[in-house]
Structure formats: structure tokens, C-alpha cells
Amino acid sequence: MGDGFNLILPRLLDTLIGSLIAGLAVFFILPDWQGRRLYREAANALTNHRRYLDEIIHQYEEGKQDDLAYRLARRNAHNADAALSTLLTNMLHEPGHYRKLDADNGLRFLVLSNTLLSHLSALGAHRHQLADDEDDATLVPVAKRIGELLGRIAERLNQRQPVEPLAEQTAELLTQLEEQSAAADEQAITLYRPIQSQLRLITEQLAPLGEAANRLVGSEEHAPSTASA
């Protein structure tokens, strides 16, 4: 009372400081920037793709059954791919300072993820129980090895760690697929063999997926320090 003119400057200074703190908190801490979750969403997509592949291979071993485990794995794989697509769509509306190269790298990864899921769906569409003497029965260990490599990429990506080059492992798997094809009789070669074809296409996606994961990890290293909040 009576000292309003003497208090106006300290109060104004306090108000400006408070506004600055609130502005910084809103800009750097509180927003849920999609770029901060990109690597985790990408890792989740690969993890669910790997589980889908595992269930498909299990169907080839035990016989075709639309049981709960298979349907759940299939649904989760498609949902994870859709969630990654939605995240990238939302990211395109965020400030360019946070997008940087994340959007481009994310879109590259999404294309590979979509391609992988389409090959998995084709592999699942032809599932049936393989006989012990069937040529394609020898491909089951190769398929399980592919699943292990997918799981390794997902694990390294989720930990924001670089993925080692997969060119050598990919070449070995492709060689095994080619050797198995050459060992089959001529009549089998003339027939369409969806298991072998789809496994080859899936194997060819491993190295590009590893490179795409490394690009996501590299872009995250330049993200703000609050990215883990």
C-alpha cells in the first residue's frame, strides 16, 4: 500500500524470469516430440516382425493353425508397422529443428519395414506342415537364423547402439538358400517354391535394415539431451 511504484520493477523482473523458465520448459521438456521416440518405435516394429516370423516357422513345423498365438503375432506386427507410420506422419508437422534428418531416415526405415512385412505375410499365406523328406524342410534352420538377426537389429536399435554390418551373415544365408535349391531335383526347381523365394527376399532386407537402424541411431546422437526424458 503506497509503495506500488517501488515494487513494480522487482515484480516485473520476477514475472519475466518466470515466463522465461516456463517457455524453456514448454519448448525443451514438456513436448512429446515424435523424434524422441522414433528409434524405440522402429525397434518395436522389428521385434514384432521377428515374433511374427517365429510363429510362421512354428506353423510350418507343426501345421497350419489359426490359433491365438499366430493371430496375435500377425496383428501386433501390422499394428507396430502402422504405429511407426503414424509417428512419422506426426513428425512431419513438428518444428524443423527437431526433425532434421529424422524424418528422412525414418521414412527409409518405414519402407524397409513395410517391405519386410509384405514378405512375411506372403510366407504366412503359404504355411503348411512340412514333411521330413520335403526339400523346404531344410529351410527351417535358415528361417530361424533370419529371425535371430532381426532380433539382434531390434535389440541394438532399442539400446541406441550401432548395428554391426550384416553383409557377411546375409551372404552366408543366401548361399545356403542357393545350395538348397541346387540340391533339389529338376522337377522341384521348375515349381514355384514360395518358402525359398520369400526367405531369400527377407534375407536381402537384413543388411539394408541394419544400415537404416544405424542412421536412426546416428541421428539420435545429435538429439537434445532431454531426449531420454
Rg of Cα set: 25 Å
* Number of continuous helical runs: 10
Spans of at least 5 consecutive residues whose pLDDT stays below 50 are: 185-190, 220-229
Rough shape?
elongated
The CATH topology label of the largest domain is Methane Monooxygenase Hydroxylase, Chain G, domain 1
The helix content is over 70%
Task: Give the helices and strands as they follow along the chain.
Answer: HHHHHHHHHH
**CATH domain class of the largest domain:** Mainly Alpha
CATH architecture of the largest domain: Up-down Bundle
What structural category arises from helix and sheet content? mainly alpha
Beta strand count? 0
SS strand fraction: under 5%
How many domains is the backbone divided into? Answer: 2
Look at the structure and give the mean pLDDT.
Answer: 84
Sheet with the most strands, sense and barrel status:
none
Oligomer: single chain
How far from one another are the termini? 45 Å
